[in-house]
Amino acid sequence: MPYLAVAIGGLLGALARYGVSLIVYQPNGFPLGTLLINVTGSLFLTWFYTLTQERIHIHPHLRLAVGTGFVGAFTTFSTFTVETWTLYTSGRGLEALLYVGLSTVGGLLGAFLGYLLAVRQSSLRFADSISEDS
């Protein structure tokens, strides 16, 4: 059953990734869509895992479907490396470095913001449950 959960999540994540790639403008061939996907994926995955480990208990198969399946298919390191290499080999080395830097810093910032969001949401939920018990 976990394989099915990952497969369904992966299908939906791949479709979402393809959809984003169709609608996000790529200025002068700069891979803005992949950058956006990887940064938002980092934010979402950290937020999701933090909440589901700390406060919200969900079925392990749902966690696999969303985290490993959906986000795993939605974000992609292989596309990132190919796009970086393409920028570099087409004489756009500075843009390749910019892309690597923005992706790395953006991904880490997204993860940090996802964590802060999850902590804030879980502490608010915890505070609400305390006031309801009083």
Question: How does this model look, in words?
Answer:
The protein is mostly helical. It has 5 helices and no strands. It has helices at about 1-25, 30-55, 60-75, 75-90, 95-134. Helix 2 (about 30-55) packs parallel to helix 5. The radius of gyration is 18 Å and the shape is globular. The model has no long low-confidence stretch (mean pLDDT about 90).
Radius of gyration: 18 Å
Low-confidence stretches: none
Shape: globular
Q: What integer is the average pLDDT?
A: 89
Q: Determine the strand fraction and express it as a percent band.
A: under 5%
Largest sheet descriptor: none
Helix residue percentage: over 70%
By DSSP, the count of extended strands is 0
Find the structural class using helix and strand composition. mainly alpha
Number of helices: 5
Distance between the termini: 41 Å
Order of secondary-structure elements: HHHHH
